[in-house]
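Table 4 source record.
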Amino acid sequence: AAAVLFIPVFLLSAYLFIQQGQGNVRTLAVRTNPGVVSAFDLPDGSKVWLNAGSSLKYPTQFNDKQRVVSMQGEAYFEVESDKEHPFIVKTKQLTVEATGTAFNVNAYTSDNVTAVTLVKGKVAVTLDKKKTISLSPGEKIDYNLATSLYNVNKTNTYKWCSWKDGILIFRDDPLEYVFKRLGQTYNVEFILKDAELGKYSYKATFEGESLNEILRLLEMSAPIRCKEVSNRNTNNEKFEKQRIEVSRIVRK
């Protein structure tokens, strides 16, 4: 089943600055709210796209040896080339070291798998401060935190980076993954009434649709029915999660 809808849309780039004192160099923390992608430049000219529900910390001025940032959630980096000053991205699970390159890091704390996708250049990915793996363009590493196992595979990199352009691409992915991705983007918890639904193979490209529009398209193209099962306080500044119950329907 496929649901493809292309609607040009200007993706909002709103973000929150939080400044903290750290000697003579301040640390800036950028956090994105659900449904918002933030794009900004770092002090060295490198560019960052920060996905919904993510955060990035970086100094107002990099030191004379390394360019270090830390993050959780998902971010896409276009790093300014500087072989003398490596660019390092730290997550709770792994570290990515680059000089001049473009790559995506998916490291949501709620996930069991952390992934790095390399678009161009080279990066070295260190897992739990122990093993280091070098990636080539077009490769993606998935690191399972529960088992400490990893896989490196060739991939269509744009599928994993398209979110920065306001596009979600699914290509024969199980609905379980589709709902996880939508949940991260829109701050939604999906509850599957039938576990087998999670294995249903789904193909779709969403560009600029609201959550309600996506749910309607899902219902049109997959044997499911979506129903909201929680009453949210729209004035809640903590962005309480919407809960969607997904049940199977039998088409005649």
